[in-house]
C-alpha cells in the first residue's frame, strides 16, 4: 500500500494541489486569503491547463504524443535529481553573496519593480549564455528539442539546467541588492508565467494578446524563441518583461508570413529520450575528440553552437544574418 500512497503523493505534487488540499482538510478556509493560500490556488492552474491541452488535442486533432511522452519521462527524471540541487544552489548563493550586495532593497512596490527588472537581467544572462556557449547549450538544448509546443515542454529540461540558471539569476539579484523575500516572490511569479508561455496552439491559437504583445513577453514571443526558422533563431530570451531583449537587440515578433517550425537545427529524433537529453553532449564530445589541437578542442566548449574549427561556421548569428541579407535585403 505504501507504493500506492507514494504514487498518489506524486500525482497531487504534479498537479500542484498538495497545499490546497491541506488547507481544505484543516477546514481553515480563511487561509485561502493569505499569500500561501492564494499561491496554493495558482499552483494547479498550469498542470490543469496541461491536462486540458492534452485532452483537447486528443479530441480534436492528433497531438504530438511523442512530445508529451518524452517530456513526461524527463519530468520523472528531474523530479528526483535536479530540483534538490537547484534549491541547494539558491541557498548557497544567497549565503555567499549577501554580504557583497551593493545595497539593500526593502519590501515596497517600487523595489519590487526594480527587483523584477534585475531578475529579468539575470534570466537574460543565463538564457543568452545557454544559447551562445556550447557547453551551456548542452544543458539548455533539451528544452528546445520538442518539435511541437504545449505545456509539457515546461518540464523538458536537462537536470543540471535549473541549478545553472538559478546560480546566475540568484547571484545577479543578490549582488544588486534584491532581498531574498522579494526574490522568492518573483521566482514564484516567473515560474508560473514561464510555464504559461508554453501553452500550445490547441488551446490558444493566436497568442499575441493584442496590445500586450507590445509591452510584455507573450506566448507568441516564446513560440518564436522555440523556432528553428533562420529569422527566429536566438531571439526573445526574456520571460515576462522583454526589456532586455529590446536593449540587447534580440527582440523578434512572430511574423504572419513566417510559419513557426519548432525544434533545433540538428538532425535528431525528438521522440527519443536519449537523443533529446544527451544528444548535444554526445555531439560536443565528438567535435572535441575530432578537433585538432588543444586550443581548438577548448574553443568547441566555449564558442556558440555551430562554430567550426574549419571556419565554416553555422552559428545562429551567421544563419540569421544570411537570411536577413538574402530575403529582406538588409
Ligand atoms: Zn532557450
Ligand atoms: Zn521555453
UniProtKB/TrEMBL annotation:
Membrane topology designation: Multi-pass membrane protein
Fatty acid hydroxylase domain mapped to chain residues: 113-250
InterPro entries per UniProt: Fatty_acid_hydroxylase, Sterol_desaturase/TMEM195
Membrane spanning stretches: 41-60, 80-103, 109-129
One cellular component term from this protein's GO annotations in UniProt: endomembrane system
GO molecular function, one term: glyceryl-ether monooxygenase activity
Keyword Phosphoprotein tagged: no
Cellular compartment(s): Endomembrane system
Single GO BP term: lipid biosynthetic process
Keyword Oxidoreductase: yes
Swiss-Prot/TrEMBL keywords: Lipid metabolism, Membrane, Oxidoreductase, Transmembrane, Transmembrane helix
Record PANTHER family: ALKYLGLYCEROL MONOOXYGENASE, STEROL DESATURASE-RELATED PROTEIN
Protein name (record): Sterol desaturase/sphingolipid hydroxylase, fatty acid hydroxylase superfamily
Classification lineage: Bacteria, Pseudomonadati, Bacteroidota, Flavobacteriia, Flavobacteriales
